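Entry 12.
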Amino acid sequence: MQAFTPLEAGDPERVGPYRIVGRLGSGGMGRVYLARSPGGRATAVKVVHEELAEDAAFRRRFGREVAAARRVTGPFTAPVVDADPDADLPWLATAHVPGLPLGKAVAAHGAWPERSVRALGAGLAEALEAIHGIQMVHRDLKPSNVLLAVDGPRVIDFGISVAAGDTKLTHTGAVVGSPGYLPPEQLVGQEVGPAGDVFALGALLAYTATGSGPFGGGPAYSVNYRVVHEDPDLEGLPDGLADVVARCLAKDPLGRPRVPELIEELGRWEGADGTRGTFTRATWLPAPVVADVTALRAAPLPEEAATATADADLPTVTVASPTAVATARLGAPPAGPSFAARLRRAARQRRTAVLAAAGTLVVLAVVAGLLLPRAFSGTSGRGNGAESTGTPTAAAKELAVREQWSSDTDVWRPVVADGKVVGDQDGVLKAVDAGSGKPVWTYDDPSASSFEGVSDGVVVASSRENGTIQGIALDSGKQVWSVPAKAHTVPGTTWALYMRVIVADGTVYVNTMYHLPEESERYGTYAVSALDTATGRLKWTRPVEWTLSDALAVADGVVYGGVRERDGTYFHALDADTGDQLWRYHASASRHYAGEVTAITVSDGTVYFGDSRSVLHAVDARRGTKLWTYEPDVQTAEEWIEPLMVTDGVVYGGTGDATSDYGTGDVHAVAADSGKPLWTEHTEREPELHGLLDGSVLFSTKAGTLHAADTRTGASPAETRLSSGDPDAAVVGDRVYFDGGDGRLHAGRISLTDG
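Predicted 3D structure (tokens):
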């Protein structure tokens, strides 16, 4: 195991006096490199993204925060050793910690025993004491900012997120930080002090002890809402930890324990060898994590900077003409998306992928404007013992994407309709020609900031600010109608947010949350509403007393969705024409957190839905009676991810860990009539399914890859790289449209051939 990946063409050879020798990772602030100091010492150098570097306010705050961070000392922090806030691209250097990110450790090996969680908490509390001691607040304590070493944890990036939060790029309402770890006061715009870090520490301990966050998973706004308004789910926490975690997660900052109290309370831990409160050995860690950390520590560091040139293990492919041959690492990689783009994407239905600081090789395969294939053979297997077995046909498949065009007009969540690719970017709706990539129209009304879907020649968009829903003509980009939120707002309430908007069969269906008057005992109420796509006219509204799920689907004149009530999660069916309830199915029971419905599809009289507790349900679509349930054998709680697909008697779906920055995932094939698992294929990041092609299931992951797994076995999937991050792909037949990680929308033709 190694903690770095090779350099790529375009990476710097030096930053200040530091010689760059490898990549450690990337995030919203910048790219992190492994470097050697002039004296040869291993160092981690973070180079700020260009978008932030152009902001004068950021530079000033960055300089102040770096100066303060250099004063932080302590055994559980990675000290800042050098910085240049005035460089063309500001940078800072910290001591290199050959450690495993906490999120990656939990994702790989599951929940920790109590003694290890206590030891982790004691070390992190001591790190916070050092940070708070110089009047600094971390503000972004999360699993990816904790590195695990044999002699204790290390906190990184302290204070730097404050600089990012002060830039003009985040003044439009974006919240800097990670859902589930941000304290309530930060989410509602109040001042954040040391108690905010205590809240994050409590959430982090709960995650480590149970494998899931105390406020569940799902879209960022859903998690943030639960942080502000709902009690944490502490089910599964050992008795010895439940009380201290609950106090750390108090809504009122004044009700949380002080850091010295936590050091005293958590410091009374005992290692696996019986030693008390000492990090001199790796016995504070779970045994499987010790093995990974030890391997990282033993891995040799690169001696020379090596750019990502041709490698023997990469296939050569013919490009442009029969005589033109190139390898997959020629050419400079494209620049990453803007910082503002990353912030917005983080607020979408699923998290933006973050590159891991340890583990797999990440290579952007772009050759002279052509996206090149990289086939590989792999094994699957974590699904109830139903391990897939490869066949010569499956192993021989090679996947390639041959680029057709790229466009300066980039869009997210692209949808292809009537020869156009439609989506939004930074609150602006856009359409490009699907055949050429040329811009067709731009709709820049700021009150239509979120693209929701297309139906019957009308593009539907909603506003996160005031709830307005608009219909825009697909052919011209002109407004057809506009409906304010008050048109469907339940009497006596005010509009709060749209949890989900879908367009189907000439109707816009919305799951909405509304604020109740301040004197009410409950904080909010919900409703499902239907609007006519052609006119925007309200058809019906059905109030829902309890919490609606984000997932929503319409098929055969029925609206399907989930409701989380006091005694568990219910799945309901409503008449699409009237909103009348047809039936109600009790999906799961829990006094605390019963999960939420996260993905729905309907096929041949059966509705299939997955939830955030890893369970896939099959229910008779006419009567609402249970047919079967399937729960994958996974190490951590994973939620089912849209879309689910049913083809030839098989349900295909993806699951992923929504609580981890390094969330891995799985693709599953389940018999549609019985729920019997057919195969499971593990993926390096959360998967998103796109359809079937030539006997293979196509899916992409947030690591930037497109995969094709054999529909019969799931074994030996071929892959090709589309992007340096989440490709946000849309597949129609053998065409794929995606974000190439360079701020451009790309279109390519997919081919699957025998190797």
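Annotation: The chain has 13 helices and 46 strands. Residues 114-132 form the longest helix (19 residues).
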